[in-house]
Design a protein that fits this description.
single chain; 320 residues; alpha/beta; Rossmann fold; 2 domains; 6-stranded parallel sheet; 3-stranded parallel sheet; 11 strands; 41% helix; globular; binds guanine
Protein backbone atom coordinates (compact mmCIF):
# COMPACT_ATOMS: atom_id res chain seq x y z
CA UNK A 1 0.00 0.00 0.00
CA UNK A 2 2.77 2.40 0.95
CA UNK A 3 4.57 1.69 -2.30
CA UNK A 4 1.39 2.50 -4.24
CA UNK A 5 0.80 5.74 -2.39
CA UNK A 6 4.31 6.90 -3.10
CA UNK A 7 3.70 6.06 -6.78
CA UNK A 8 0.66 8.30 -6.64
CA UNK A 9 2.62 11.05 -4.94
CA UNK A 10 5.04 11.01 -7.87
CA UNK A 11 2.19 12.09 -10.11
CA UNK A 12 0.49 14.68 -7.94
CA UNK A 13 1.19 17.96 -6.29
CA UNK A 14 -0.35 18.79 -2.91
CA UNK A 15 -2.18 16.61 -0.38
CA UNK A 16 -3.91 13.34 -1.21
CA UNK A 17 -7.61 13.74 -2.03
CA UNK A 18 -10.42 12.02 -0.13
CA UNK A 19 -12.62 9.91 -2.35
CA UNK A 20 -15.75 9.33 -0.27
CA UNK A 21 -16.67 5.68 0.04
CA UNK A 22 -14.57 4.38 -2.82
CA UNK A 23 -12.76 1.19 -1.83
CA UNK A 24 -9.33 0.98 -3.41
CA UNK A 25 -8.62 -2.50 -4.75
CA UNK A 26 -5.17 -3.91 -3.89
CA UNK A 27 -5.06 -6.73 -6.38
CA UNK A 28 -4.41 -6.03 -9.21
CA UNK A 29 -2.46 -2.89 -8.25
CA UNK A 30 -4.77 0.09 -8.66
CA UNK A 31 -3.44 3.00 -10.73
CA UNK A 32 -3.75 5.63 -8.03
CA UNK A 33 -2.14 8.34 -10.12
CA UNK A 34 -5.19 8.10 -12.40
CA UNK A 35 -7.41 9.48 -9.62
CA UNK A 36 -5.50 12.72 -9.53
CA UNK A 37 -6.45 13.53 -13.13
CA UNK A 38 -9.02 16.23 -13.68
CA UNK A 39 -11.69 15.43 -16.26
CA UNK A 40 -11.82 16.91 -19.73
CA UNK A 41 -14.69 19.42 -19.73
CA UNK A 42 -17.00 18.84 -22.69
CA UNK A 43 -17.97 22.29 -23.92
CA UNK A 44 -21.55 22.25 -25.20
CA UNK A 45 -21.44 25.88 -26.30
CA UNK A 46 -18.41 25.31 -28.55
CA UNK A 47 -19.81 22.13 -30.11
CA UNK A 48 -23.22 23.78 -30.57
CA UNK A 49 -21.58 26.77 -32.29
CA UNK A 50 -19.80 24.65 -34.86
CA UNK A 51 -22.85 22.50 -35.62
CA UNK A 52 -25.14 25.54 -35.84
CA UNK A 53 -22.79 27.18 -38.37
CA UNK A 54 -23.24 24.10 -40.58
CA UNK A 55 -27.03 24.12 -40.14
CA UNK A 56 -27.11 27.83 -40.94
CA UNK A 57 -25.39 27.30 -44.28
CA UNK A 58 -27.65 24.35 -45.12
CA UNK A 59 -30.68 26.51 -44.24
CA UNK A 60 -29.38 29.28 -46.54
CA UNK A 61 -29.04 26.80 -49.41
CA UNK A 62 -32.55 25.53 -48.85
CA UNK A 63 -33.98 29.05 -48.55
CA UNK A 64 -32.36 29.92 -51.88
CA UNK A 65 -34.44 27.08 -53.35
CA UNK A 66 -37.57 28.66 -51.86
CA UNK A 67 -37.89 26.48 -48.74
CA UNK A 68 -36.98 28.33 -45.55
CA UNK A 69 -36.95 25.91 -42.59
CA UNK A 70 -39.80 26.84 -40.22
CA UNK A 71 -40.40 25.88 -36.59
CA UNK A 72 -43.53 26.64 -34.53
CA UNK A 73 -43.14 26.49 -30.75
CA UNK A 74 -46.32 26.35 -28.66
CA UNK A 75 -46.20 27.37 -25.00
CA UNK A 76 -49.20 27.12 -22.69
CA UNK A 77 -48.98 28.96 -19.37
CA UNK A 78 -46.24 30.92 -17.63
CA UNK A 79 -43.86 28.27 -16.26
CA UNK A 80 -40.64 30.36 -15.91
CA UNK A 81 -38.30 27.53 -16.96
CA UNK A 82 -40.46 26.75 -20.02
CA UNK A 83 -40.50 30.44 -20.95
CA UNK A 84 -36.68 30.49 -20.96
CA UNK A 85 -36.45 27.25 -22.98
CA UNK A 86 -38.96 28.49 -25.56
CA UNK A 87 -37.24 31.87 -25.91
CA UNK A 88 -33.88 30.13 -26.43
CA UNK A 89 -35.35 27.76 -29.03
CA UNK A 90 -36.96 30.57 -31.03
CA UNK A 91 -33.82 32.74 -30.86
CA UNK A 92 -31.62 29.84 -31.99
CA UNK A 93 -33.90 29.37 -35.01
CA UNK A 94 -33.75 33.03 -35.95
CA UNK A 95 -29.94 33.12 -35.59
CA UNK A 96 -29.66 30.10 -37.92
CA UNK A 97 -31.80 31.85 -40.54
CA UNK A 98 -34.93 29.74 -39.91
CA UNK A 99 -38.47 31.02 -39.84
CA UNK A 100 -39.84 30.68 -36.31
CA UNK A 101 -43.20 31.29 -34.65
CA UNK A 102 -43.79 31.47 -30.91
CA UNK A 103 -47.43 30.71 -30.07
CA UNK A 104 -48.45 31.58 -26.52
CA UNK A 105 -51.63 30.65 -24.62
CA UNK A 106 -52.74 31.41 -21.07
CA UNK A 107 -52.59 28.51 -18.59
CA UNK A 108 -56.40 28.16 -18.57
CA UNK A 109 -56.85 27.92 -22.35
CA UNK A 110 -59.37 25.31 -23.52
CA UNK A 111 -57.55 22.29 -25.04
CA UNK A 112 -59.80 22.56 -28.13
CA UNK A 113 -58.16 25.90 -29.01
CA UNK A 114 -54.68 24.35 -28.94
CA UNK A 115 -55.79 21.27 -30.93
CA UNK A 116 -57.25 23.56 -33.62
CA UNK A 117 -53.99 25.52 -33.82
CA UNK A 118 -51.95 22.31 -34.12
CA UNK A 119 -54.21 21.19 -36.99
CA UNK A 120 -53.61 24.54 -38.73
CA UNK A 121 -49.82 24.22 -38.22
CA UNK A 122 -49.93 20.65 -39.60
CA UNK A 123 -51.42 22.09 -42.81
CA UNK A 124 -49.12 25.16 -43.01
CA UNK A 125 -46.40 24.70 -45.69
CA UNK A 126 -44.19 27.38 -44.05
CA UNK A 127 -43.93 25.21 -40.91
CA UNK A 128 -41.75 22.08 -41.03
CA UNK A 129 -41.45 21.45 -37.32
CA UNK A 130 -43.95 21.77 -34.44
CA UNK A 131 -43.00 21.65 -30.79
CA UNK A 132 -45.43 21.86 -27.87
CA UNK A 133 -43.43 22.69 -24.77
CA UNK A 134 -43.98 20.26 -21.88
CA UNK A 135 -45.25 20.10 -19.21
CA UNK A 136 -48.78 21.20 -20.10
CA UNK A 137 -51.38 22.39 -17.55
CA UNK A 138 -53.58 19.70 -15.95
CA UNK A 139 -56.62 20.15 -18.24
CA UNK A 140 -54.49 18.71 -21.09
CA UNK A 141 -53.93 15.07 -22.00
CA UNK A 142 -50.28 15.49 -23.04
CA UNK A 143 -50.23 12.20 -24.94
CA UNK A 144 -53.22 13.29 -27.04
CA UNK A 145 -51.54 16.63 -27.80
CA UNK A 146 -48.34 14.91 -28.97
CA UNK A 147 -50.38 12.52 -31.14
CA UNK A 148 -52.14 15.50 -32.77
CA UNK A 149 -48.86 16.74 -34.28
CA UNK A 150 -48.26 15.39 -37.81
CA UNK A 151 -45.49 12.75 -37.41
CA UNK A 152 -43.47 14.29 -40.25
CA UNK A 153 -43.43 17.63 -38.35
CA UNK A 154 -42.81 16.11 -34.89
CA UNK A 155 -39.26 17.45 -34.46
CA UNK A 156 -39.27 16.42 -30.77
CA UNK A 157 -39.68 12.78 -31.85
CA UNK A 158 -42.38 12.23 -29.21
CA UNK A 159 -45.26 11.03 -31.45
CA UNK A 160 -45.95 7.30 -30.94
CA UNK A 161 -45.16 6.63 -34.60
CA UNK A 162 -41.73 8.25 -34.22
CA UNK A 163 -41.06 6.52 -30.88
CA UNK A 164 -41.90 3.20 -32.58
CA UNK A 165 -39.55 4.00 -35.47
CA UNK A 166 -36.75 4.74 -32.99
CA UNK A 167 -37.38 1.47 -31.11
CA UNK A 168 -37.17 -0.39 -34.43
CA UNK A 169 -33.86 1.30 -35.24
CA UNK A 170 -35.30 3.36 -38.12
CA UNK A 171 -35.63 6.80 -36.52
CA UNK A 172 -37.39 9.62 -38.36
CA UNK A 173 -36.59 12.19 -35.64
CA UNK A 174 -34.31 11.45 -32.69
CA UNK A 175 -35.42 13.22 -29.46
CA UNK A 176 -33.21 16.29 -29.11
CA UNK A 177 -31.55 15.79 -25.71
CA UNK A 178 -30.33 12.21 -26.25
CA UNK A 179 -29.44 13.11 -29.84
CA UNK A 180 -27.25 15.95 -28.53
CA UNK A 181 -25.63 13.58 -26.04
CA UNK A 182 -24.73 11.11 -28.81
CA UNK A 183 -23.15 14.01 -30.73
CA UNK A 184 -21.19 14.93 -27.58
CA UNK A 185 -19.86 11.37 -27.25
CA UNK A 186 -18.92 11.32 -30.92
CA UNK A 187 -17.06 14.64 -30.73
CA UNK A 188 -15.24 13.54 -27.54
CA UNK A 189 -14.13 10.32 -29.28
CA UNK A 190 -16.11 8.14 -26.84
CA UNK A 191 -17.42 5.14 -28.78
CA UNK A 192 -20.17 3.35 -26.76
CA UNK A 193 -19.42 0.05 -28.55
CA UNK A 194 -18.71 -2.59 -25.91
CA UNK A 195 -18.95 -0.10 -23.03
CA UNK A 196 -21.09 -0.21 -19.90
CA UNK A 197 -23.57 2.68 -20.01
CA UNK A 198 -25.82 3.62 -17.11
CA UNK A 199 -28.71 6.04 -17.53
CA UNK A 200 -30.27 7.49 -14.37
CA UNK A 201 -33.86 8.45 -15.21
CA UNK A 202 -36.52 6.74 -17.33
CA UNK A 203 -38.45 9.66 -18.82
CA UNK A 204 -39.90 9.57 -22.32
CA UNK A 205 -37.94 12.75 -23.12
CA UNK A 206 -34.46 11.62 -22.06
CA UNK A 207 -33.97 8.29 -20.23
CA UNK A 208 -35.86 5.90 -22.51
CA UNK A 209 -34.64 7.26 -25.88
CA UNK A 210 -31.12 7.61 -24.44
CA UNK A 211 -31.11 3.91 -23.54
CA UNK A 212 -32.29 3.01 -27.05
CA UNK A 213 -29.59 5.09 -28.75
CA UNK A 214 -26.80 3.72 -26.55
CA UNK A 215 -28.06 0.17 -27.15
CA UNK A 216 -28.11 0.82 -30.91
CA UNK A 217 -24.49 2.01 -30.56
CA UNK A 218 -23.60 -1.39 -28.99
CA UNK A 219 -23.28 -0.30 -25.35
CA UNK A 220 -24.53 -2.57 -22.56
CA UNK A 221 -27.16 -0.33 -21.01
CA UNK A 222 -28.69 -0.21 -17.53
CA UNK A 223 -31.55 2.18 -16.82
CA UNK A 224 -31.74 3.20 -13.14
CA UNK A 225 -34.44 5.30 -11.52
CA UNK A 226 -35.89 6.42 -8.20
CA UNK A 227 -36.88 2.83 -7.25
CA UNK A 228 -33.53 1.21 -8.07
CA UNK A 229 -31.98 -0.40 -4.96
CA UNK A 230 -28.27 0.35 -4.44
CA UNK A 231 -28.11 2.71 -7.39
CA UNK A 232 -24.43 3.48 -6.75
CA UNK A 233 -23.52 -0.18 -7.34
CA UNK A 234 -24.77 0.31 -10.92
CA UNK A 235 -23.31 3.76 -11.54
CA UNK A 236 -19.84 2.65 -10.38
CA UNK A 237 -19.75 0.17 -13.25
CA UNK A 238 -20.51 2.83 -15.87
CA UNK A 239 -17.97 3.81 -18.52
CA UNK A 240 -20.64 6.24 -19.71
CA UNK A 241 -22.94 7.70 -17.06
CA UNK A 242 -25.94 9.84 -18.04
CA UNK A 243 -27.65 11.63 -15.13
CA UNK A 244 -31.23 12.73 -15.92
CA UNK A 245 -32.96 12.43 -12.57
CA UNK A 246 -33.75 16.07 -11.78
CA UNK A 247 -32.08 16.19 -8.35
CA UNK A 248 -29.38 18.75 -7.66
CA UNK A 249 -25.88 17.21 -7.26
CA UNK A 250 -27.36 13.73 -6.89
CA UNK A 251 -24.34 11.98 -8.44
CA UNK A 252 -21.42 12.20 -6.04
CA UNK A 253 -17.77 11.26 -6.60
CA UNK A 254 -18.09 7.89 -4.86
CA UNK A 255 -20.75 6.87 -7.44
CA UNK A 256 -18.44 7.34 -10.43
CA UNK A 257 -15.93 4.95 -11.98
CA UNK A 258 -12.51 6.59 -12.42
CA UNK A 259 -12.11 7.72 -16.03
CA UNK A 260 -15.85 7.52 -16.84
CA UNK A 261 -17.57 9.92 -19.23
CA UNK A 262 -20.24 11.73 -17.21
CA UNK A 263 -23.12 13.49 -18.97
CA UNK A 264 -25.24 15.80 -16.84
CA UNK A 265 -28.77 16.46 -18.14
CA UNK A 266 -29.94 18.16 -14.92
CA UNK A 267 -30.93 21.80 -14.71
CA UNK A 268 -31.78 22.56 -11.08
CA UNK A 269 -32.11 25.91 -9.36
CA UNK A 270 -30.48 26.16 -5.94
CA UNK A 271 -31.99 28.28 -3.12
CA UNK A 272 -29.40 31.00 -3.87
CA UNK A 273 -30.73 31.20 -7.46
CA UNK A 274 -27.70 29.51 -9.07
CA UNK A 275 -28.13 26.73 -11.65
CA UNK A 276 -26.63 23.32 -11.07
CA UNK A 277 -26.88 19.89 -12.62
CA UNK A 278 -27.65 16.41 -11.30
CA UNK A 279 -23.91 15.81 -10.81
CA UNK A 280 -21.68 17.18 -8.05
CA UNK A 281 -19.44 18.74 -10.69
CA UNK A 282 -16.53 19.96 -8.52
CA UNK A 283 -16.02 16.56 -6.88
CA UNK A 284 -16.83 14.34 -9.89
CA UNK A 285 -14.50 16.19 -12.26
CA UNK A 286 -11.60 14.90 -10.11
CA UNK A 287 -12.66 11.30 -10.84
CA UNK A 288 -14.22 11.31 -14.32
CA UNK A 289 -12.35 11.19 -17.62
CA UNK A 290 -14.75 13.66 -19.25
CA UNK A 291 -17.73 15.61 -17.91
CA UNK A 292 -20.34 18.08 -19.17
CA UNK A 293 -20.83 21.28 -17.15
CA UNK A 294 -24.15 22.89 -16.20
CA UNK A 295 -24.85 25.36 -17.68
CA UNK A 296 -22.98 25.14 -20.99
CA UNK A 297 -23.15 21.38 -21.53
CA UNK A 298 -26.19 19.41 -22.66
CA UNK A 299 -28.55 22.47 -22.78
CA UNK A 300 -27.09 24.17 -25.86
CA UNK A 301 -26.80 20.80 -27.60
CA UNK A 302 -30.51 20.02 -27.07
CA UNK A 303 -31.49 23.21 -28.87
CA UNK A 304 -28.93 22.54 -31.59
CA UNK A 305 -30.48 19.15 -32.34
CA UNK A 306 -33.89 20.80 -32.55
CA UNK A 307 -32.41 22.88 -35.36
CA UNK A 308 -31.01 19.70 -36.94
CA UNK A 309 -34.42 17.98 -36.84
CA UNK A 310 -36.25 21.04 -38.21
CA UNK A 311 -33.72 21.39 -41.01
CA UNK A 312 -34.08 17.72 -41.85
CA UNK A 313 -37.89 18.04 -41.91
CA UNK A 314 -37.56 21.00 -44.29
CA UNK A 315 -35.07 19.14 -46.52
CA UNK A 316 -37.48 16.20 -46.75
CA UNK A 317 -40.36 18.56 -47.57
CA UNK A 318 -38.23 20.18 -50.30
CA UNK A 319 -37.61 16.77 -51.88
CA UNK A 320 -41.33 16.13 -52.35
N1 LIG B 1 -39.78 20.04 -21.82
C1 LIG B 1 -38.55 19.72 -21.37
N2 LIG B 1 -37.78 19.25 -22.38
C2 LIG B 1 -38.56 19.27 -23.48
C3 LIG B 1 -38.32 18.91 -24.83
O1 LIG B 1 -37.24 18.45 -25.22
N3 LIG B 1 -39.37 19.09 -25.67
C4 LIG B 1 -40.58 19.57 -25.25
N4 LIG B 1 -41.55 19.70 -26.16
N5 LIG B 1 -40.83 19.91 -24.01
C5 LIG B 1 -39.81 19.77 -23.13
Amino acid sequence: MLAKLSLQQKFRKGPLPIYGKIRFPDNPPFPYFFLSMSAKILDGNALARSLRADYKSRAALLSAQGVKPGLAVVLVGENPASQVYVRNKVNACLEAGFHSEKILYPADVAPRVVFERIAALNADPAIHGILVQLPLPPQFDSGAVLEAIAPEKDVDGFHAENVGALVQGQPRFIPCTPYGIMKFLESAGVDPDGKEAVVIGRSNIVGKPMALLLTAANATVTVCHSRTPDLAAHTRRADILVAAIGKARFVTADMVKPGATVIDVGMNRLPDGKLCGDVDFDAVREIAGAITPVPGGVGPMTITMLLANTLEAAERAAEQ
